[in-house]
Amino acid sequence: MTPRELRVFCLSFNAVVEDFPFNPETSVFKVQGRLFALTNLDAQPLKVNLKCDPEDAVRLRGEYEGLIVPGWHMNKRHWNTVTVDGKLPDGLVRELVEDSYDLVVAGLPRADRLRLDRP
After folding, report:
1. CATH number for the domain formed by residue range(s) 3-116
2. Per-domain residue ranges for the chain?
3. Which residue ranges of the chain lie beneath pLDDT 70?
4. In this structure, are residues 34 and 45 in contact, taking their beta carbons and an 8 Å threshold?
5. Closest listed residue to residue 28, CA positions, set 73, 87, 95
């Protein structure tokens, strides 16, 4: 997955915006103002912080040692840093991004979740 493909995929979800609150290099993808993905799209190798269910986070870190690690500068229980350098299948990366988005949406107030379900 290229940086451009990662960016386009993150932006493909309902109500997502890309923001740069930290610096011009760090893309923060948010839904309803809440972060679900954080990355420097110009970094080599490309890495992205993604929210993850705590049990899945531990399992993924063991299964993909060195490629999926505890979230850098994030709550290590709920966030993973995923290296997107071609060693992980693109389908897995997409699944992890989608799971992160879904976890954040699940934590939104009911009214906000209902608005997201509309086309």
Report:
1. 3.90.1150.30
2. 3-116
3. 118-119
4. no
5. 73
